[in-house]
Amino acid sequence: xxxxxxxxxxxxxxxxxxxxxxxxxxxxxxxxxxxxxxxxxxxxxxxxxxxxxxxxxxxxxxxxxxxxxxxxxxxxxxxxxxxxxxxxxxxxxxxxxxxxxxxxxxxxxxxxxxxxxxxxxxxxxxxxxxxxxxxxxxxxxxxxxxxxxxxxxxxxxxxxxxxxxxxxxxxxxxxxxxxxxxxxxxxxxxxxxxxxxxxxxxxxxxxxxxxxxxxxxxxxxxxxxxxxxxxxxxxxxxxxxxxxxxxxxxxxxxxxxxxxxxxxxxxxxxxxxxxxxxxxxxxxxxxxxxxxxxxxxxxxxxxxxxxxxxxxxxxxxxxxxxxxxxxxxx
Length: 330
Prior knowledge:
Elements: H1 32-39, E1 44-48, E2 54-57, H2 60-64, H3 69-72, H4 83-99, E3 103-110, E4 130-141, E5 148-157, H5 161-203, H6 207-218, H7 222-225, H8 236-239, E6 286-288, E7 291-295, H9 297-315
Antiparallel strand pairs: 1-2, 1-5, 3-4, 4-5, 6-7
């Protein structure tokens, strides 16, 4: 008699456990080197010839020196260096190539002059703006050759932008504290002067002067100070709610609909990358062999189809089925 196979006799799907992938791998992005150079805005990346001509320049030069990166190509970098810094810069540059050592020098580079639409020439002309840069780099030699092929350099503002902003913030904080103390001193002095003036003014008034003063300056009606008990101090309309001193509150607009607040768009704080194709934009992120949201929409569908086929083959009792790996089919 043949034994009937129960549900427990079916082979369970075998999954190979893989170490969890790091949450973010920048080098897996497509053209990550180009993105790194393009998105770097804090420093100017330069590729120079042995004669100090610009062969390549990243777009950060527009934010720092106001030059276009296309205008810098084939331009002699020493022409932008300040006259007083030009000799030391050229000497350090030549020594770095000759001795094959790193370059570290400070120089002031001239910014692009602003276009003036005024027809009247300025006398004397406005000097061009300059930025103090910290230039570091090294020469590049091909194996077995003595001639320098190119020179890689990075120029950063000195002090850096973050340091300059921090110094400005500290200076503003100290100035604010000084102004607050000055304001407190002036307020105390103003209160003392107002009290002294009030005492002197009241001491110099007579009875008739006091009556005229309160009638004219404070606005009390004359019958309030005349001693006539049959007259009221203020008109009847002044005792009505909202009628005091001519104040009339605006009608409440009860029929007006309340303003609707526009819902704020939630900004995604996480950025995902597909572990198979390296995409960073996908309409939906799917589960993969390394966990949820590790595959893009297309790769996730192919992986789900592969898992489903493996489970169907396991339920059918196919013993020739290979173990399930973490390879996503193309």
